[in-house]
Design a protein that fits this description.
EC 1.11.1.6; two-stranded parallel ribbon; heme binding; 12 strands; alpha+beta; 13 helices; oxidoreductase; heme; iron; about 25% helix
Amino acid sequence: ATVTLPADAGKTMAVPAEAAPAAVPNLTRDNGAPIGANRNSKTAGDLGPVLLEDTTLIEKLSRFDRERIPERVVHARGTGAHGIFRATADISDLTRASLFTSGKETPVFVRFSSVIHPSGSPEGLRDPRGFATKFYTDQGNWDLVGNNLPVFFIRDAMQFPDMVHSLKPSPVTNKQDPNRFFDFFSNTPESTNMLTQLYSNLGTPSSYRTMDGNGVHAFKLVNAQGKVTFAKFRWISRQGVKNLTAKDAGAAQFNFMTDDLYREVGKGNAPTWDLMIQTMTPDQFAGLDYNPFDDTKEWLDVPFRKIGEMTLNKMPANFFEFTEQSAFAPANMVPGIEASPDRMLQGRLFSYSDTQRYRVGANVMALPVNKPMAPVVNNYQDGVMDGTGSTSNVNYFPAIVQKQAAAEFGQSTYDVNATVDAKPIEKTNNFAQAGIFYRSLSAKDKADLIANLAGDLGQVTSDRTRTIMVSYFYQADKDYGTRIAKAVNVPMGEVTKAVSEYETAYPQQRLTVR
Ligand code: HEM
């Protein structure tokens, strides 16, 4: 569905002026000592130089000099909110994760984001949107770090840095360039599904409140008896999914998504999402025509059921402290939720905590927004900005006063009988789901998709790259491919030639052409 912006969209939020407290405190330096002069530097006479002994000035400038930390390498532009998750179903048959006890409430922090564009970019630019949720459960933090779209461009973490390089600005001109990212995607046919969804109006949501969220990967759920079930998670917006047309998104005010969230939560219109789950057991995998751990695919025929709901009801008191320093990591899991063999998820398990130890620092997890509600007990110590307040003399293991690992929380075991190798997955089925998505669109949404896609693909100067891209869309759906071919001036003869080349290279794909 597409919508036009509400009349008050983009109006800058009124920030309430702070009421002066009864006794206005005096300024101090960081050491707590009162400041005598905060306007004028200390100089040697009217015409003389500024003195190094002006510790107030030196401290003020040096603190200012250190205000920035590196922005996130992706998902740099975002906004966060606090809320509550309430479990609404008993799923102890699937997982022993304590947060899913029906009726139980768990505090959450959510950060919404765009992906490729930098922290100071307009919020109307086409991009997938991040939807990351940190559940502060009584057994530690669980981070569900997802996107609004249900699938991803690639299926192996090995390709992530290359994909991001192609989408980020050129290292030569510092401008994003469709020639570069379509060069990458024309060599990555599995991206066809996500590209089709991204160039639909889902790529320009009308607000963060009106987006769904998707965990994208399969996760492994383990119940108290050790039984394994694989699951995908999805947030369904109770506000409905609403998107903008490219034209409206282009005209939208710079901060319209952030403003919308502050305005609506600020006036008590707390947005709500239902948490849905899909499940499969390994015996169901054999009948699939795709790999269940391939994140370029949805589990299209698997039903959803509701297991909880989340309401965002409070905006952070300070953007930097909470939103910018928030650190979501797929590796932050709790007993009962484990990683599946999804090759992207496996790479993500490493990458997030790694970047956060660089972006924020070794003690990132001790900051208020990241600190678990559950007590943290281990022998990790020191590092930049340690404020953990440890008073124990025993920082080693084993020891007489032992910090025990509890065997009951050991992870699930599984058998592996395989050859170690680095090779692609077998059931690639790169195009079928893109076709299903295309055919599910209304005539108007199809026309918008073609126009949006042609707007970027039409800028690609290489005939070969445009032809291969069109051949992928054609293999998803003939009508889709034929319309794109026309819109970006690729002769149909060239398209069918590229399809044959593809089918020769990947014979198992033949049956997917509709
Ligand atoms: C952020 C890496 C795939 C969703 C990030 C960050 C990195 C990263 C390094 C910045 C984290 C930070 O500075 O705090 C990767 C790698 C991937 C991958 C290596 C593939 C192997 C994905 C996928 C999704 C996703 C498949 C969606 C399911 C997000 C979100 C954020 C993020 C939502 C922003 C979290 C926040 O709001 O702070 N990613 N990513 N990423 N990624 Fe990924």
